[in-house]
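During the reporting period, our protein records have gained a structure token line. One record among many is quoted in full directly below:
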Amino acid sequence: MPRATNAVATKKRRKRILKQTKGYFGNKSRLYRYAIDAFWRAGCFAYRDRRKKRTEFRQLWIVRINAACRPLGICYSRLIAGLAAAKIELDRKALSELAIHDPAAFCAVVERAKSALATASQDA
């Protein structure tokens, strides 16, 4: 009597992994033994990078804001301090978009932040 192997489930599991690793380089897309390692490794990177993406976007926005406000005579850290003093609640993403798409509005925001810094330093 032949032994039971449940070949249907085994084949289904292997096909699922190979389908998800389609497009990977070399044996990782063709052989189950290597595909399963690549599949788990890719999942770990995907999980990590979904969290890392937020940090990287914030860094990008800060770099863009700093690059846009330097020619206007203020650095990024002073701009943020001025916005806090002026009670302007714009997040970094919005500031970055303003700097790129509407430089006149960004310039107005920077001027408001500068004036708020000036009045705050006179009061102190």
